[in-house]
């Protein structure tokens, strides 16, 4: 698989300005790198905007992924899936149970994707009512296709015998209530300049005022399971993700999401788009989180991967690609290569990493680092 940057046809100067290191220089750096840095590793995030206090979720998830890695040896994809499933089951994160609701306060449209270093890729967009959307992406990766969407994807998922589940939670409804408040106050960024009511594409009518929107949520609440959220509101917006490196230097990345906070029917973000939300290859693995539109425009994962392939450390590669993305856009990235691993985000992001020696969490190292 050849990336646009490798072909030299990407018009953006920022990463292109980074001089590629010679193959020899890369080889020397690898040979000189601390052997303790190279070994099995699972690194997961709980989404851009998620506070470090929630890094216990990714910490449990990476333990599960690492256990899978230890029991299944070289299967980086199996470890990535086990990690994502754990995060999909955690209602505090925007994936699986707890996924964001769409603007109608009823529907959830989940996206998921995975990729490994043999260019095996599978993705799904716009599916509902499944406990583990990542399992659908896995099945797509085993098919002749790369990406399935909407009704076709849902019907395909129906052939897999996966566990069905109502993914809506009180936390997601509370988050949409905060989104409605911003929307009707004209404080929702580009939504304030867009006539979203004119383009409303749900079966139910568009709310004209905030109290009508809140009534949509109350109606959803009436038929719902679960207790009111017992936590203070947070800015967790987005997506769960994982990158994996095996003992033999095999790589995989995976993502799962309910999409962005305010979204009409059919909106798809970066997660199922190869090179936008995730990328994996022989030089490493990358998983992004945050505002999908910004991640797609900046082709975040492919560009970070390209820098890994040129011999940059994961932390440097993340910094170079994210430094010009506005904090208002909100983007985070995790990455691993044979030079180490790194995390970086334009705002807070819960993450955890597990290697043979230890488990690391966002509340011990905020932002980014090389290990
Ligand atoms: N990053 C997930 C999304 O924007 O849908």
Give the helix/strand layout.
Elements: H1 4-7, H2 13-16, H3 23-32, E1 41-48, H4 56-72, H5 76-88, E2 110-116, E3 121-127, H6 133-141, E4 147-149, H7 150-158, H8 170-184, H9 210-222, E5 240-245, E6 251-257, E7 278-281, E8 284-290, H10 292-298, H11 300-309, H12 314-322, E9 331-337, E10 340-345, E11 349-355, E12 359-361
Parallel strand pairs: 3-4
Antiparallel strand pairs: 1-5, 1-11, 2-3, 2-6, 5-6, 7-8, 8-9, 9-10, 11-12
Glycine binds at residues 238-239, 257, 259-260, 269-271, 289-292, 295.
Small ligands present: glycine
In sequence order, what are the helices and strands, one letter per element? HHHEHHEEHEHHHEEEEHHHEEEE
What overall geometry do the principal axes of the alpha carbons give?
A: globular
CATH topology annotation of the largest domain = Glutamine Phosphoribosylpyrophosphate, subunit 1, domain 1
Number of domains: 2
Q: Percent helix among the residues?
A: 25-40%
Query: Biggest β-sheet, characterized?
Result: 8 strands, mixed
Please name the CATH architecture of the largest domain: 4-Layer Sandwich
Strand content: 15-25%
**Level-1 CATH class name of the largest domain:** Alpha Beta
Rg from Cα: 20 Å
Q: Kindly report the spatial arrangement of strands forming the biggest sheet.
A: 4-3-2-6-5-1-11-12
- CATH homologous superfamily heading of the largest domain: (Glycosyl)asparaginase
* Unreliable sequence segments: 1-36, 366-371
What's the N-to-C terminus distance? Answer: 28 Å
Number of strands: 12
User: Which structural class best describes the helix and strand composition?
Assistant: alpha+beta
Mean pLDDT: 86
Tally of alpha and pi helices? 12
């Amino acid at each position: 698989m050849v990336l646009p940057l490798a072909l030299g046809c990407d018009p953006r100067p920022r990463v292109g300005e980074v001089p590629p290191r010679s193959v020899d220089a890369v080889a020397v750096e690898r040979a000189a790198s601390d052997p303790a840095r190279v070994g099995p590793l699972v690194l997961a995030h709980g989404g851009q905007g998620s506070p470090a206090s929630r890094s216990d979720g990714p910490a449990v998830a990476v333990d599960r992924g690492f256990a899978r890695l230890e029991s299944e040896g070289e299967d980086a994809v199996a470890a990535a899936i086990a990690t994502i499933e754990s995060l999909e089951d955690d209602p505090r994160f925007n994936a699986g149970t707890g996924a964001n609701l769409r603007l109608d306060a009823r529907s959830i449209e989940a996206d998921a994707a995975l990729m490994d270093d043999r260019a095996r890729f599978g993705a799904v967009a716009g599916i509902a009512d499944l406990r583990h959307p990542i399992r659908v992406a896995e099945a797509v990766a085993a098919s002749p296709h790369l990406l399935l969407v909407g009704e076709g994807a849902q019907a395909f998922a129906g052939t897999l015998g996966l566990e069905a589940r109502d993914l809506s939670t009180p936390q997601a409804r509370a988050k949409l209530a905060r989104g409605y408040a911003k929307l009707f106050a004209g404080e929702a960024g580009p939504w304030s300049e867009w006539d979203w009511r004119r383009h409303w594409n749900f079966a139910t009518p568009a709310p004209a005022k905030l109290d009508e929107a809140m009534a949509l949520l109350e109606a959803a609440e009436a038929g719902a399971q679960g207790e009111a959220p017992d936590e203070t509101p947070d800015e967790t917006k987005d997506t769960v993700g994982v990158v994996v490196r095996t003992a033999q230097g095999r790589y995989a990345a995976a993502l799962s999401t309910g999409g962005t906070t305010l979204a009409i029917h059919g909106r798809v973000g970066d997660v199922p788009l190869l090179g936008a939300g995730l990328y994996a290859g022989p030089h490493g693995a990358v998983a992004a989180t945050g505002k999908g539109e910004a991640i797609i425009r900046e082709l975040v994962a492919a560009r970070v991967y390209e820098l890994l392939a040129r011999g940059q450390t994961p932390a440097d590669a993340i910094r170079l690609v994210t430094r010009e993305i506005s904090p208002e856009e909100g983007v985070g990235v995790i990455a691993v290569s044979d030079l180490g691993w790194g995390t970086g985000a334009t705002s807070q992001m819960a993450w955890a990493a597990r290697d043979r020696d230890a488990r690391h969490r966002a509340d011990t190292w905020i932002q980014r680092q090389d290990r």
